[in-house]
Amino acid sequence: MAKSEIVVALDIGTTKVCTLVGEVLGEDQIEILGLGSAPSTGMRKGVVTDIAATASAIRDSIAAAERMAGVHIASVYVGITGEHIESLNSRGSVPIAQEITEEHVYQARLAARQITLEADREILHNLTRQYIVDGQEGVRHPIGMSASRLEVETHLVTAATSFVENVVKCVQRARVEIEEIIVEPLATGLAVLTDAERQLGVALADIGGGTTDVALFADGAITHTTIIPVGGNHVTNDLSMAFRIDPEQAERTKVRHGAARVEEVDPSEYIEIHMIGEEEAREIPRRLLPEIIHPRMHELFALLREHIDTAAADGVRVSTCVLSGGGSQLVGAVELAEEVLELPVRVGRPRELIDPRGTADSPVYATAAGMLQFAAQRTVGRRPVPEPRPLPGAAVRLLFAWLRGLRKRS
Q1: For 71-81, b where at least 16 C-beta lie within 10 A, e where not — what string?
Q2: Global pTM?
Q3: N or C: which end of the chain has fewer CB within 10 A?
Q4: pLDDT surpasses 80 at 385
C-alpha cells in the first residue's frame, strides 16, 4: 500500500446522513480528517422512501466532509440496515490431499455460501466463525496445516436486493462510487467492542433513529445479526403525541430533558413546552417525560432480550451488553437495559482512532467509525484469503442478459 490512503464512510440513517473521512496510516491506525452531517428525510426504518431526498442529503453530507477534510471524495464505503437484513450460520467443507492451501480455504468458504435464497435476496457478508481441521474445532488459521478434510463455519448476512439497489441508486445520484456495502451492526462492532468482549460473549445494540441494529458475538466470532424496528424516533413520536408538540420540539425535549427511568429525574423540576395551537408556553413536571419514554425503551430492551434468550437456547452465551448510537445517550438507558437484560451494560464509543479534534468521539458516529476500520482492513490487506462475494443483484441480471445475447449471436 502507499504511505497513506484516504477512506470514506457513508452512514445513511433515518434521521441523518453522516460522512466520515479518515487517513489510513497503517494497520489499526486511522486519523480522522473530516466529518459531514445532513438531516435525512428520505429514509424510514433504514429503507429508502424518497430517492431524491436521500441523494440530496448524501451530497450535502459529503460536501461538508470535503470542506473539513480538504479532500475530494470520489468513492465511499456505505452502511446498510433495515428490517430486511437477515442472517444465518452455515458450514462448508472440502477434501484435502496433503496440506491446506489458500485455495482450499477459498473453496470451503464458497461451499458455505451455497444456500437456497429467495429470488429477491442476496448475500452481503460471508464471515468466518471458525475452521475445523479433521474434526478439530477452533482453528483460526488453517493454511499450511496437514489434513484430509477442511470445514468452515460462517455467518451469512443477507438483504433484500431491491432495497440494496435503492441505496445504490441514492449514492450514485450523489455522484460518488461505492467501494463496498457493509451491514451496519458489523461495522459498529468493529468500532466499539473489545476482543475480550467478543470472546466472552457480548450483545451489541446500536440504537439509531428508526431501528436498533443488533449483533451477538461469542468465542471471538459473530453468531447472530438482526434489526429491531424500534429506535429513537419512536420515543420522539411518543412525546410529540403525548404533549401535542411538533416533532422538532419533541426531539429537543428528549435530548435535553428526557430520561428512560423516573428515578433519574428530580420530582420538583419543571420544563417549558409549546403545544401546537397555543401561543403561551406551558410548564410541566419533568418527571412526565420518563413516564412516556420508559415504556418504549423497555419495549426495545425486551425485544433485545428475546434475541439474547433465543441465542442462549442455541448454546450462545452472552455475558455483557454494549449500547451505541444516539439512543444510548439517553439518561437512564444503561440502567434500564441492565434491569431488563440482567446483564452488565456499557455505552460504546469509537475506539482506536487518531482523532485530535474529537470529531467522531461519540456513540452517534460509531457506525461510520467502524466502516473506516473495515475499509482500513481492506486497504492494508489484513484479509489474505479472498472472500467469495457475489455481484450485486442488478449486475448479475445484466451479466446473464449479456451472456444470453452472446449465445444468440453465435
Answers
A1: eebeebbbbbb
A2: 0.87
A3: C
A4: no
Residue 292 DSSP SS3: helix
pLDDT tens across 281-292, in order? 999 999 999 999
**Which residue in the block uniquely carries the three cell numbers 477459498?**
106
Does residue 388 surpass a pLDDT of 80?
Answer: no
The whole-number pLDDT of residue 313 equals 86
Instruction: Give backbone dihedrals phi and psi of 49, rounded to 5 degrees, phi first.
Output: -115, -15
Q: Which pLDDT value is given to residue 352?
A: 82
Report the DSSP pairing between strands 221-228 and 270-273: unpaired
Question: What letter would DSSP give residue 14?
Answer: S
Cα torsion 178, 89, 144, 389 to 10°: value is: -20
Whether the pLDDT of residue 99 is over 90: the answer is yes
CA angle 366, 367, 371 (to 5 degrees): 115
Instruction: Judge whether 229 and 209 are in contact, CB under 8 Å.
Output: no
What's the rounded Cα separation, in Å, for the pair 79 and 190? 13
Beta bridge partners of 182: 79
**Residue reference for cell 489458500:** 102
In the structure grid, which three cell numbers stand for residue 204, read together? 451489541
Q: Three-state DSSP class for 224?
A: strand
CB contact burial 142-154 (16+ within 10 A = b; e otherwise):
beebebeebbbbb
CB 173 within 8 A of CB 71: no
The single residue listed with the C-alpha cell 450485486 is 392
Under 8 Å between Cβ of 247 and 236 = yes
Higher pLDDT, 166 or 408: 166
Burial pattern 120-139, b for ≥16 Cβ within 10 A else e, equals: ebbbbbbbbbbbbbeeeeeb
Cα-Cα end-to-end distance for the chain: 43
Question: What pLDDT was estimated at residue 27?
Answer: 65
Closest listed residue to residue 35, CA positions, set 359, 387, 405, 371: 359
Report the relative pairing of strands 202-207 and 320-324 from DSSP bridges. parallel
CA distances for 334 relative to 197, 250, 340, 395, angstroms: 17, 22, 10, 44
